């Protein structure tokens, strides 16, 4: 089978969500505050379903189990990546994610290293990205006293930027930011601080995970040293944001397409593709498929090469694991 797998997103309500997934991307989202579009997912909390072709109606996890050839016959137990779009209409909790060892032991799933491509950011938007504690003793003391102004590092942000967030990194998206997130397939989040917000449905503050946070936060904070590289081919521009060994779990790219280009992945690899703006088409084995803003697809390992044409801005990723 040599065709792309177009996927149906899954949407999640969040206390910090809004409606921009509808207004900016045209998605038919449920009522309420929708914070997350799970665009490419094999995770049990939100399975992506194939919309086209031979495998229409099947989920990514179905195919991972029954058609491993689509993914290069991988060794892993679960589909390893998760692509999301997040709409932070309000600030997310300040949080941290565990690494694989801690997550397997305590949560029975993968750890969570992630990254963000900033799609949109209101003026004066910022991230919480890292912390200022030099020792664990200092970290624990600042958490216990609620000294968030001195503990948390705030970083101004604007559209087009990229941030790599390894497990153990204290972080938060803040109000007015929309991102495409590439991450390990995990739904484990430890909340360190949540602004004393109350859930409308329960009238209670959301649960915090202080011990787990203290267990997993990297001290002192370590900023990843990225080697972001861009190249121009004709009118097209290709950027590599991160790849192994800096990021052991995934590679992430931006493709700015203005004229036809033929692409391929390494033998045995599959590629995740998300269109964040524009219109065009992708051609596989002589067959054309429309591409538009908000489309998400997997180009399986059974496709040797494909041609993209149009005016398109795409974020693509590949798993770093065999």
TrEMBL record:
Question: What name does UniProt use for this protein?
Answer: Mannose-6-phosphate isomerase
Does the record carry Metal-binding as a key word? yes
Q: Which cofactor does it need?
A: Zn(2+)
Q: Which residues form the active site?
A: 191
Every copy of the Phosphomannose isomerase type I catalytic domain together lies at 6-105
User: Is Disulfide bond one of the keywords?
Assistant: no
- Explain how, and how many, cofactor molecules are bound: Binds 1 zinc ion per subunit.
The protein's organism comes out as: Companilactobacillus nodensis DSM 19682 = JCM 14932 = NBRC 107160
Matching NCBIfam families? manA
Reaction(s) catalysed (UniProt annotation): D-mannose 6-phosphate = D-fructose 6-phosphate
Q: Which family does it belong to?
A: Belongs to the mannose-6-phosphate isomerase type 1 family.
Tell me the residue numbers annotated for binding Zn(2+).
97, 114, 171
Q: What is its EC number?
A: 5.3.1.8
Q: What keywords appear on the UniProt entry? A: Isomerase, Metal-binding, Zinc
Organism classification: Bacteria, Bacillati, Bacillota, Bacilli, Lactobacillales
What's an example of a GO molecular-function annotation for this chain?
Answer: mannose-6-phosphate isomerase activity
Domain Mannose-6-phosphate isomerase cupin intervals:
245-317
Q: Which InterPro entries match?
A: Carb_Metab_Reg_Kinase/Isom, Man6P_Isoase-1, Man6P_isomerase_Firm_short, MPI_cupin_dom, PMI_typeI_cat, RmlC-like_jellyroll, RmlC_Cupin_sf
GO biological process: what's one of them?
carbohydrate metabolic process
């Amino acid at each position: 089978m040599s065709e792309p797998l177009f996927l149906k997103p899954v949407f999640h309500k969040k206390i910090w969500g809004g409606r921009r997934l509808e207004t900016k991307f045209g998605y038919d989202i449920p009522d309420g505050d929708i914070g997350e579009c799970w665009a490419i997912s094999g995770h049990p909390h939100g399975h992506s379903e194939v919309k086209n072709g031979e495998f229409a109606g099947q989920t990514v996890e179905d195919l991972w189990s029954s058609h491993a050839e689509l993914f290069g016959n991988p060794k892993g137990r679960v589909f390893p990546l998760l692509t999301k779009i997040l709409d932070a209409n309000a600030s997310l909790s300040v949080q941290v994610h565990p690494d694989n060892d801690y997550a397997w032991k305590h949560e029975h799933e993968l750890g969570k290293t992630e990254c963000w491509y900033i799609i949109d950011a209101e003026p004066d938007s910022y991230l919480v990205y890292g912390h200022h504690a030099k020792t664990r003793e200092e970290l624990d003391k600042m958490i216990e006293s609620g000294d968030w102004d001195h503990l948390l590092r705030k970083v101004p942000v604007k559209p087009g930027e990229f941030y790599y967030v390894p497990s153990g990194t204290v972080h938060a998206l803040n109000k007015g930011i929309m991102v495409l997130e590439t991450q390990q397939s995990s739904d484990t989040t430890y909340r360190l601080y949540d602004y004393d917000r109350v859930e409308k449905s329960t009238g209670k503050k959301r649960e915090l995970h202080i011990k787990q946070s203290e267990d997993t936060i990297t001290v002192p904070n370590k900023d990843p040293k990225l080697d972001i590289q861009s190249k121009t081919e004709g009118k097209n521009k290709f950027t590599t944001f991160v790849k192994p060994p800096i990021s052991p779990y995934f590679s992430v790219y931006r493709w700015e397409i203005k004229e036809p280009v033929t692409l391929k992945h390494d033998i045995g690899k599959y590629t995740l593709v998300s269109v964040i703006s524009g219109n065009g088409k992708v051609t596989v084995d002589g067959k054309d498929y429309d591409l538009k803003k908000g489309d998400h697809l997997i180009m399986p390992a059974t496709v040797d090469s494909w041609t993209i044409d149009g005016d398109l801005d795409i974020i693509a990723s590949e798993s770093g694991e065999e």
